[in-house]
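Step 1: inspect the first sequence and its tokens.
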Amino acid sequence: MRVEADCIPCYLKQGISTLKVAGKSDLEISEMINSVLGVIPQMSLEATPCYNSTVILRKIYDIIGKIDPYKKAKEDWNNYALKQYKELIRIVEDSPNRLHKAFKVSVAGNIIDMGITPDFDVDLAMGEITGKEFDLDHFNQLEAMLDKAKNVLILGDNSGEIVFDMVLAQEFKKIGLNVIYSVKGGPVLNDCTLEDAEQIGLTSVCEVVTTGNDLLGVVFERSSEEFLNVFNKADIIISKGQANFESLEGNEMAGSNIFFVLRAKCPLVAKCLGVNFGDIVLKRNRS
């Protein structure tokens, strides 16, 4: 997915959200946002939206001098999600198709997003686990690949959401698959890191690797050798969230064994997916 003019307000929105989380006043936010506006004309139109977002965020992180302004918020959302964990497991266990229901649990967690939609409604997403089907669902294509699959890689997205993904990881393991979960190599927005994986106990469920960088989405040329090896050996890749979709959709290096699991929180992403704004999706990569 490539940049469009409508992406620019989202860059700034994520920057403003970060400054609010960092405790900056309205005046400080205005001054700091003004100081990063000069970066926008220098951005590549050939880049992905998530990469350009990272450029803005890095500038803001440099200004505020904080390594991780979302640290406390991430811990809080992980703890919130852990309180829902037993109920999420029960929902999956009561389903006639446990793996498909685990995907519904996983996509419900994708609503937790402090960058694009800081006013997200978790109760709405929890209700959708049992009350709504995927608006675009390629689960049958994924299911057809399971017999020959051995390794599954889940590309993590946000803190809190990582607990919902843990339910999916456990279901994959129950059908005999080796599961690896990837997290960011450093803090960016509320994306999950190794610290989040350790906090929720995911490291005792499956292997966890980092991308080797702190960039939104997947950037192959900036990823660690360990991550690239895991990525290339995976028989099935589950890509969570918009940033991973933006960077991998239609990417020849990504391949056709990737399935995107996300809520379309942006009209441009929804258009690219061929769905409506707000729809939930389990979609195979078109490449």
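Step 2: inspect the second sequence and its tokens, then contrast the two.
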Amino acid sequence: MGVREECGVFGIMAPEICDVASISYYGLYALQHRGQESCGIVVNDDGLFASHKDLGLVSEVFSENVLSRMPVGRMAAAHVRYGTTGGTNRNNCQPIEVNHQKGRMALAHNGNLSNAVKLRNELELSGAIFHTTSDTEIIAYIITKERLKTTSIEDAISSAMNILDGAYSLIVMSPQKLICARDPYGFRPLCYGKTSDGLYVAASESCAIKAVGGEVIRDVEPGEILVFGKNGVISRKEHCGKRQKKLCVFEYIYFARSDSVIDGVSVHATRIKAGSVLAKTHPVEADLVIGVPDSGLDAALGYSHMSGIPYGMGFIKNKYVGRTFITPGDRLDKVKIKLSAIEDAVKGKRVVLIDDSIVRGTTSGRIVKLLREAGAKEIHMRVSSPPFLHPCYYGTDIDSEEHLIACKYTAAEIAGRIGADSLGYLPVEKLPMLTGNCNCCTACFSGDYPTKIPADIGKDRFEQRLSDKEKGMESNIIKKAIDEPHSYCQQVCAVVK
């Protein structure tokens, strides 16, 4: 609890005109865990794009009335967002739509660019005007620039991939084609499948493909471009093999849904294995193993199986508390409203508490307190990931070492601060055991970054911040416009000329 990641993408191409908006709705619903800040769907109706995007959960933004007004079509691109960069506003809702000299484009993106600041500065100096504060608009600009020089949208995407660095799984929709692309490192997941009635579907996770009645064909390879068009599916692999695969290991530990399979590896099985490893490396005498919903439950089951300590339900999660939930006053604890300890299950018992991570320690402390109040005799916390020691540049909302509790305190000290009797993390050297693949990205734990580290990683790194001198100049301009409108207009006209 406390770690978030940017986004989920979904795309669909049908052989005939159908209600692609409603199908996309169900796809986004299955990806809701990847982002609860905003969502959007763009429908392609024979080259005409129609969209609906807004802040909120999928069920809030796409009411029955909204879906009924969206046109039918053969293609759609869709997105759920949690912003690791950029502010929370409607301008940052995706998919981003672009109208350019050679047509239209809609773009949905999962991940963060590690060279975003450099690219944005170059684009702004060349005259580009940005309307959002996310990396996605940078990608849209670069693809559009390349499209003006190439003969096809897929060529433009291929050229853009020579410029982009970092994490990006893309769904790109043109008037005639649906395209998905995955960065050469494969930081973020992307897969595609097909339904029994011939609809091709691409999504961040396999659970979304299954949610719309499809069967997963395979994962998109790192560096691969897939083109869905009149000639079926065309794979382009000119960028494949250029980088060593670095899928984010936290996809398995936390981000992905338990029923998803990523790059051929079951998320559920990975979390079971993480719990087993914890039981071996951090054993303890206890009466009960419980997990923090949702991503801690599988690991708790694995810990129980390996240790022989009974597994049980220790918490009830309020499933109806979403992103837009407003706490009625500061006196109430948000954790208590979202999570309740089951007193009959934990009272008088020595409890092993399994969670996926500890970031600042605030939420962990509140969860431990819930168990104490419910009468737990001892609480031994086990974490199914290593301690966070470094910021992430590829889409995980960890942007400052000064806020990471593990950078300041030992495990024993953290246990004392959160009120636990003991604390054990998954050893970082054991991470390859979880997936059988030692090529995952572990940078937020180990500091081993696959790309060059960017200079500016702030969450709102593209927000405008005026200096005091600039603010004074701005005030004088506004005052002159109000007091001397005729003179001000003459000056503006002179500048334009």
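Step 3: confirm your contrast with the notes below.
Residues 468-497 form one domain. The chain is about 30% helix and 25% strand.
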